[in-house]
Amino acid sequence: MQKRPVDVAVISDLHLGTYACKAKEFVNYLNSIEPRLLILNGDIIDGWQFSKHYFPTHHIAAIQYIFHLLSTGTRVIYITGNHDETLRRYADLHLGNFQLADKVVIEIDGKMNWIFHGDVFDHTTTNSAKFWGKLGSNGYAILLGFNRIINKMMRMFGKEKVSLSKKVMEQFHKRFVQIDAFETMIAELAIEKKYDCVICGHIHQPEKRVFENDKGKVTYLNSGDWVEHMTSLEYYNNDWHVYTHLQEEAKTETLKQPKPKPEVVTNEISIYLHSLTQPSTI
């Protein structure tokens, strides 16, 4: 299977270290593309549920493949999220063609793209609400495990799989996170700051839509997750696309090739790093 060349790939909410993480599918996806720039937009490693007793080989393989991309010339930017918030103390770390940041602004083909995880706009993950957020995260992990058992039984009887966890998450977002308000607030702020696109993750809802008001317009994008949706954002042919990975897609073969010298900063892609110290400064 031939790999697809993409200029930029944005992935978020992988949640390595949890039972919900679809690490095998994630590796298959990475193995199917040739990105010039890979952006890991938060919650890649789940520090909230991390346990030294559970980090299987395919989760390790996901990290190894990211390092493989680094070694073969792909630039990788890791943007911190709330589940990997401990990394925020090391924001602005720059090692070769790897960078760690809290948010970035990328100029692509003359358009400014504002990229961050998005948790600072979610009231359920700040201050005292963080405790309930962590408790809910653990409950969601248990529900996902229960959901897998149900789906195994459904397959035994020739039935289609169901996603109870997805329905529960949708209801949670509807009642507490209020996705429409979340997206609108981010889009309006991006319009105020004169950005062309704003990209986030966090809410596990892949999306591409245009917001417009009397001050201007902006394209809002969300990269989704690798727990339920298995989605990413890809930039190619001068536009952003929401990509959904299918479990049935064949695994591509990794060919051993000479490692090229990293040449990842081009005239078409310029990157500006910014630290996020407080939510009010985003």
How would you describe this protein?
- It is a single chain.
- With 282 residues, the chain is of the alpha/beta class.
- The protein is built from five helices and 13 strands.
- A seven-stranded mixed beta sheet has the order 4-5-3-2-1-11-12, covered by helices on one side. Strands 9-10-8-7-6-13 form a six-stranded mixed beta sheet, covered by helices on one side.
- The N and C termini lie far apart (41 Å).
- Keywords: Cell inner membrane, Cell membrane, Manganese, Membrane, Metal-binding.
- This is UDP-2,3-diacylglucosamine diphosphatase.
Please supply descriptive tags for the structure shown above:
alpha/beta; Purple Acid Phosphatase, chain A, domain 2; 7-stranded mixed sheet; 6-stranded mixed sheet; 5 helices; 13 strands; 28% helix; globular
Topology overview:
Layout: E1 4-11, H1 23-30, E2 33-41, H2 57-71, E3 75-79, E4 93-95, E5 98-101, E6 103-108, E7 111-116, H3 129-156, H4 164-177, H5 179-192, E8 197-200, E9 207-213, E10 216-222, E11 231-236, E12 239-244, E13 269-274
Parallel strand pairs: 1-2, 2-3, 3-5, 7-8, 8-10
Antiparallel strand pairs: 1-11, 4-5, 6-7, 6-13, 9-10, 11-12
